[in-house]
Amino acid sequence: MEIVKGMGLLLFTLGLFSLFSFKAPKGSKAMSGLANAAVATFLVEAIHKYISGDFLNFAFLGKVGEVSGSMGGVAAAILVPISMGANPLYAVVAGVAIGGYGILPGFIAGYIIGLIAPMFDKKLPEGLNTIVGALLIAPLARFIAMGIDPVVNATLVNIGQMISLAAQQSPLVMGFLLGGIMKVVCTSPLSSMAVTAMLGLQGLAMGIAGIACVGGSFTNGIIFKRLKLGNKSNIIAVMLEPLTQAPIVTKNPIPIYGSNILGGGLAGLSAAYFNIINNAPGTASPIPGLLAPFGFNDPKKVLIAVTFAVMGGSIGGLVGSVVFKGFAKKDYNSDEILVNEINESNNDINNIAGETATEIADDTNNDIADTLITKSKVF
């Protein structure tokens, strides 16, 4: 029953996030800012506090990680408006004003500020807009965060706790289901880092999500390679950060997402079997998902889990490249198409230039001949 509740809540939440990203004004840009805030705070905390500080006993780096991890709300309130195109000054004013609140209140406050901040530049004269904007945005951002914090804790955080509980009670089943779904989210235009940050996922559930993104990156690499969905740079880019290849992904959803479910699910099974814990929310991406678990687990166990996750992701890519071979749209061979189009354009230009030159020469010769004939008649 807990599995059904956990997966149902996850799918419902993903639906809401998708609706926000694609339909809300500047929703996708706001989600991108939230993902950047998660990396700037939670990833730094996971590496420096738990690895450099607790494991390697570097007190200074441990303090750096601890402070960084406490600034999630500030980072979100700054980076979200900036991603939406707001004046950086207004973004920083909003960020420093909500110190002490978490990343979710910071995200919502930052999103609202990102929508209204441009009005200050449009309605007020230059110079006055900076002063008035700063004085009004600071209390407004704090008021929004203060009002939304109880709502966030009662909804999104509670959903994240339900998913974490389901992962603990049925680790292998949730490992496959959660791993497959989160890898699809990781590859889609909807940021998995933003989703896991908003849900506040921790523990085994976050470990599954992060390792699934690591193993699933090999799924994407093999799919791109075997189905010829781009060149070498496209393959490397989709493995490191799938969002950079969104045009190719959205053009070939069936082979890519279908393979991601299998590859991410198998990678998630590895994380569940080895009980990989990750208490850094928002690190569901190939590189953060690889680094963060070292701060909470025995390094040898993490390396073994990652090895099996890579194997699972590779199996997903190989199987998917065979099963979904007929669904790939190979007209997106970017280099070849661009080169051919450029060559054709050059040929057209040369032909036009040649024809134009010939016409000009003919017209010039005719004019000269007419002139000579006229003069000869005069003489």
UniProtKB/TrEMBL annotation:
InterPro entries cross-referenced by the UniProt entry: PTS_EIIC
Keyword Transport included in the entry's annotation: yes
Sorted UniProt keywords: Cell membrane, Membrane, Sugar transport, Transmembrane, Transmembrane helix, Transport
Domain Phosphotransferase system EIIC stretches: 29-325
Subcellular location field: Cell membrane
Membrane topology: Multi-pass membrane protein
Main location: membrane
Record's keyword annotation contains Transmembrane: yes
Residue spans crossing the bilayer: 89-116, 128-148, 168-186, 198-224, 302-324
GO cellular component, one term: plasma membrane
Record's protein name: PTS sugar transporter subunit IIC
